Amino acid sequence: MAAPRVEPNKVVSVTYLLRNQQGEVVDIRELPVAYLHGAGSDLFPQVEQALADKTVGESIEVTLGPEEAFGAHDPKLTFTDDLENVPPELRKIGMEFEAQSPKGEAMLFRVTRIEDGKLTVDANHPLAGQTITFAVTVQDIRDATDEERKAGRPLDNSQLLQ
Question: What does pTM read for this prediction?
Answer without folding.
Answer: 0.79
